[in-house]
Design a protein that fits this description.
Alpha/beta knot; 11 helices; 7-stranded parallel sheet; 11% strand; 2 domains
């Protein structure tokens, strides 16, 4: 027990601020444990789980983590992806399918560079990974600012969860050694995913009232495209408050006409 405690203490000494890894609908505990081990290999420790199939805590995950117990012990569990991302300012979705969403697509090295400056500035960033069976849904991806796509063999593009986590964590570690060039960050705090979700609810409620989503069967894709466009803009908290005011003013004007 003492040796295990010493090992965890040493591991924590080499963990620095890094993106969160969010696993959506993970199935096998062994895969979660392998992903946790890959994360800690490169100094990433923040793990969040959305609807793990076999519940949590999971002894198979702990056993497979093999020395990465601090990642497993500190993992947080959520029932919805929105809850897991509520405090995040920048989100990248890892998926082999690029979808039809208007989102920038990065390879792992570029994704790491995009997050490095933000994390250094104190922003909370996350990389979202899908479950073993179906990966991420289009709705999941629409919650992201960008897509992470590994340049694999197109005839055999499927990576398992631990492999995807390993590649992403490795490039994150490598980005610290490279010269990082990024756009100056906004002086004001970027809007969190929770603030964006509240804005989307406000916007979509008023658009529903105005019969904007027509025909009805196209509503899901229209909502996804709207969310992707607003997420990509990188609004600050102040700008989101301004947009709430704009929607209220437009709704008031419409009711008076």
């Amino acid at each position: 027990m003492d040796e295990e405690r010493i090992s965890r203490t040493k591991a924590r000494e080499h963990v620095s601020p890094a993106p969160l890894f969010v696993l959506v609908d993970p199935q096998m505990g062994e895969n979660i444990g392998a992903a946790a081990r890959a994360m800690l290999n490169f100094g990433v420790s923040g793990l969040r789980l959305v609807n793990p199939r076999d519940g949590w805590p999971n002894p198979k995950a702990a056993a497979m983590a093999s020395g990465a117990g601090l990642v497993i012990d500190d993992a947080r569990v959520f029932s919805e992806l929105d809850e897991a991302l509520a405090d995040c300012c920048y989100v990248i979705a890892a998926t082999a399918r690029r979808r039809e969403l208007p989102l920038p697509v990065f390879d792992p090295a570029r994704a790491a560079r995009e997050m490095r400056g933000r994390v250094s500035a104190g922003q909370t960033c996350a990389v979202v990974f899908g479950g073993e069976r179906n990966g991420l849904s289009s709705d999941d991806v629409a919650r992201a600012d960008a897509i992470l796509s590994v340049p694999v063999n197109p005839a055999f593009a499927s990576l398992n969860l631990a492999q995807a986590a390993l590649i992403t964590a490795y490039e994150w570690a490598q980005s610290a050694e490279r010269e990082v060039s990024h756009k100056p960050l906004a002086a004001e705090t970027p809007a969190s995913r929770e603030a964006l979700a509240q804005f989307f609810d406000h916007l979509e409620t008023d658009l529903d009232a105005a019969d904007y989503f027509f025909p009805a069967e196209k509503r899901p894709s229209m909502v996804r495209n709207l969310r992707a466009a607003f997420s990509r803009a990188g609004f600050t908290e102040g700008e989101i408050r301004t947009l709430h005011g704009v929607i209220k003013a437009l709704a008031k004007s419409g009711n008076q006409s």
